[in-house]
Design a protein that fits this description.
two-stranded antiparallel sheet, alpha+beta, about 180 residues
Length: about 180
């Protein structure tokens, strides 16, 4: 594992490219691009999921707890807080934040200040691991309407274009609509 000089934070980093491109870690990266962020100083990773419908909040709580379970392989200390309309998963670990930034391109600070993209490292993999990234994105920023149509919301047009290319490669027809 890696640790900071005061031994406060530990991160069990994958040792190989195969381990780095673990489907759970790639899925968490997709979730992070959707509803997560790293603070601007690179010490805290946070993912928030919630709803104003109190009865549906239980699904957000379950989702956050499931994400925390996926993280146990890499991080042994995290915090979950349940609020009135949201559930928050927080990791205070500089090394983990730097890892996500360096290998997966997650930006420090507000995502609206940067151009989001599919992590380039996913192109190095022979097996099709990209689907787990998009699954994470759809689980956080996607929805299904009453007719069964699936949508993904993002203010970043380039990220939506990359999603459209992935869907086309998977033989799924899609279109990009503006938020006008």
């Amino acid at each position: 594992f890696f640790t900071d000089f005061q031994n406060k934070s530990k991160f069990y980093c994958p040792k190989t490219l195969e381990g780095l491109l673990d489907k759970k870690l790639v899925y968490l990266t997709g979730c992070s691009i959707g509803d997560g962020n790293i603070d601007k100083v690179g010490k805290r990773w946070t993912l928030v999921d919630g709803t104003s419908h109190r009865k549906k909040l239980i699904f957000s709580e379950k989702f956050i707890h499931n994400l925390a379970f996926l993280l146990i392989k890499y991080i042994n200390n995290f915090e979950i807080k349940e609020h009135k309309t949201k559930c928050v998963l927080r990791i205070n670990n500089k090394i983990y934040c730097r890892f996500l930034n360096f290998f997966f391109g997650l930006p420090f600070g507000k995502k609206k200040d940067t151009q989001l993209q599919k992590p380039l490292i996913l192109n190095l993999k022979e097996k099709d691991i990209e689907k787990y990234f998009w699954r994470g994105m759809f689980d956080t920023d996607g929805n299904v309407n009453i007719l069964g149509a699936v949508s993904l919301s993002s203010s970043d047009e380039e990220l939506l274009d990359e999603c459209k290319k992935f869907l086309a490669k998977s033989q799924i027809q899609s279109e990009i609509k503006g938020n006008n």
